[in-house]
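re: ur question from earlier - yeah i can do the single chain one, its not a big deal. heres the input i used so u can compare w yours
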Amino acid sequence: ADARVALLDRCDVVAGFDQATKVAIAGRAVLRSFPRGAVVRAQGAAHAGLLIVADGRLDEVEVNEEGGERVLGSLGPGDWTGDGVMLAAHAGGCALVAAADTTILELPEELLREFVAAKPDLSRSMIAGVQSRLKSGKVRLPGAAARPAAAGPAGTAEVTIVGSDARVTGARKKVEAAAAAGKSALICGEA
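and the output i got, formated as tokens:
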């Protein structure tokens, strides 16, 4: 369990959790091993939870309609994927393939939701971890050049904004106006 807690300490999305919570999560997280070439998550499959690479390497692979594969990036020890579990409706994008014999620590979505329900401050900590990742540039793919501003959005998603109070209605109008104008948006917030 100590190695699992140490891994959680290195993972910025959960590093802000208090030590007792990390110990509790580590005790229930699932350690899984995959041989080189194994598909850890198929392209388009729903995120099953937060995946943290303990050792080895995962390639983020895009498969085109003809079956051709393109490696978009790699995740090494301490890196994580699965930020989609923080969204109300989420589907995975690229496939995850073990580029070497790889061990991951999986924090199932239900486990994360259980801890966040018991300690709502954890969701703020997770959001701060994702924001830190975005600000640090850790999401840039290895060897990739900076995206020119004129390149447009890196990806798109369907978003449903639910609610009728003034703040939600105002947010909905702003997002709809940005979409109609063809502008990109990054939305971070709490439920």
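The longest strand covers residues 49-55. not sure if urs matches, ping me
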